[in-house]
Design brief:
The protein contains 12 helices and 9 strands. By secondary structure, the chain is an alpha/beta fold. Strands 1, 2, 3, 4, 5, 6, 7, 8 and 9 form a 9-stranded mixed β-sheet that branches. Helix 8 packs parallel to helix 9 and helix 9 packs parallel to helix 11. The longest helix is centred in the N-terminal third of the chain and has 17 residues.
Length: about 325
């Protein structure tokens, strides 16, 4: 059976957000365009004002491929801004039945797009892929999860029995086999969003800039009644590098602010009234991570403190330039 004859899930469009990672972007775009137009109608690339030759490469690529649609941002709007822009453009330009989103360093396995179309998505509004590191290990930062404050068994396993992060995230066993699992929160790497999901949840908040925007968005979708499936048969690869190999040290200090500010907002959204006692558990852990940041410990604590305060106030209007300045202060 040819691709044109095969049954599909409908018109699928990919959205990729990139910033100064041309080598990763090349691989991702190439992999996506290997899928025929019957399975992947278009690829929207949002270039967040890259300065590494990305714009020139994309311009050359669009000249030879009508499926590639490029949006060049005037400034870096972060992953949140990029996905918001990309999803809006995909919806208005191509009227897709489904949109699949990913970072420039996250790409589908060779059969992932085909596998998506082959599976039955009845009853699901979004589909999360199984994301792996290049070496084949499960990518921890992309593990989907249940909201422990909505599910008693998950809550007991997480807080009462000391399961911690593993208590509410999917386990390695969930990645085996072909059984779809209902999740509440997932990442923007290999996430397939139906038209109905976008109608329900709207678009990501660009003010979040980076980190947690995907969690806040998908939890919001779940709160609206949207159903998200984890499909272990759909594989993505993520060559992520947020943390350095030196334990859990941020490789760019300014990211400390966004990471903790947005997590504060996500936790509050997930926990409801239980957010305040939850703070007694999470704040000491965050402070203790200062030990992983030798040489920049004052900067880490400063950004952590400001991020916590802004998160408590749900403040998202602090300019990125101000965050960068905070990360560069020596005192």
């Amino acid at each position: 059976m040819s691709d044109l004859d095969a049954k599909t899930a409908g018109r699928l469009v990919a959205v990729v957000v990139t910033y100064n990672r041309l080598e990763h972007l090349r691989q991702t775009v190439t992999r996506l365009l290997e899928s025929p137009a019957s399975l992947l109608a278009s690829v929207v690339v949002v270039d967040n004002a890259s300065s590494d030759g990305t714009a020139e490469w994309l311009q050359a690529e669009t000249a030879g491929n009508a499926r590639l649609h490029v949006i060049r941002q005037k400034t870096n709007s972060g992953g949140a801004g990029g996905f918001s822009t990309g999803l809006r453009a995909a919806a208005s330009t191509f009227d897709p039945d489904w949109v699949v989103v990913m970072d420039d360093d996250g790409r589908p396995a060779t059969d992932a797009i085909r596998k998506f179309h082959e599976l039955d998505h009845s009853g699901w509004d979004a589909v999360a892929s199984a994301v792996y590191l290049p070496g084949g290990e499960i990518c921890d930062m992309n593990r989907p999860s249940r909201n422990p404050f909505w599910h008693l068994r998950v809550f007991l396993r997480t807080l009462i029995l000391g399961g911690g992060r593993d208590g509410f995230h999917l386990k390695p066993a969930d990645y085996k086999g072909s059984t779809a699992r209902h999740v509440d929160i997932t990442s923007f790497v290999g996430l397939f969003l139906s038209r109905r999901a976008i109608d329900m949840a709207g678009y990501p908040d660009p003010a979040l800039f980076v980190y947690g925007d995907d969690g806040i968005y998908t939890l919001g979708l779940s709160q609206q009644g949207g159903r998200i499936a984890f499909q272990p048969e759909i594989h993505f690869e993520h060559a992520c590098s947020t943390f350095s190999g030196e334990r859990r040290r941020f490789n760019q200090l300014w990211k400390v602010y966004y990471y903790h500010r947005n997590l504060m907002m996500l936790y509050r959204m997930a926990a409801g009234w239980m957010f305040w006692p939850l703070l007694l558990l999470i704040l000491p852990k965050w402070v203790l991570k200062v030990a992983d940041h030798s040489g920049v410990r004052r900067g880490y604590l400063r950004l952590l403190w400001v991020g916590i305060l802004d998160g408590l106030r749900c403040r998202t209007d602090r300019p990125h330039t101000a965050v960068i300045a905070l990360s560069q202060e020596q005192a």
